[in-house]
Amino acid sequence: IVTGQSSSIHNLLKCVENCNVEVDGLVLDPIAAGAAVLTDNEREMGVVLADIGGGTTDIAIFIEGSVWHTTVLSVGGYHITNDVAVGLRVPAEAAEQLKIEHGHARHEMIDPTEVVQVKAFGDGGLTRVQRRDLAEIIEARAEEIYQLILQEIKRSGYDGLLPAGVVITGGTAEMRGMRELGRNTLGMPVRVGQPQNLSGLIDTINSPAYATSVGLLLWGRDQRDHSPLLYRRSDEGGPDLGGRLSGFLKKLLPDRNQ
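and the corresponding structure tokens:
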């Protein structure tokens, strides 16, 4: 049983329906992401899925093929960006770009003499910052995220049942050094999870940042035989927006019957 705040769910449904897309179901974020990035063996053996998004880190523990525990931590990639902006005294958009292009979660792996340029406050000129200083800021927050994940694993009581370790996904998981920092902090195997078993033009979505989106597509594909609303046509006789979108995205997923 998955519960959620009714007002938040209502607002989410209203936003989607205002875009003329009909909602056929709700899926918890880490469950959807897990469908895209976890292997069957990992689910059976015992694994933690940590989707490190922008504002939250969503956790699900899979054991014997099913979900045994879930939670949401109120910390994510946006907090790292804010730390960089404050620590280096640069605008938030410049901090985000700096994090993506030059960020690293292990400061000791960065040359102390390496310098990068970033847009500064004021007249819009550029300022020079030590890349190692950037990495130290990122590492401090990333380590905190891992410590919170570890606390939640222990709180669940399943810490001794997870031989497959932790799979991290979400946009923040792409940052250099995240896997290595996770292994050191958690004391468990850590890998970066990317969507699997895709076909077609997948260059854009074959990334941890799209794990939840791909997982939702997989869920929709698996439910299509039981939910004809997924392919409802408009009153005018042509496919509606949801039908056209699902038809396009369906091409990215392999056919289960092949």
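(Above: one complete record from the training split.) The longest strand covers residues 66-73.
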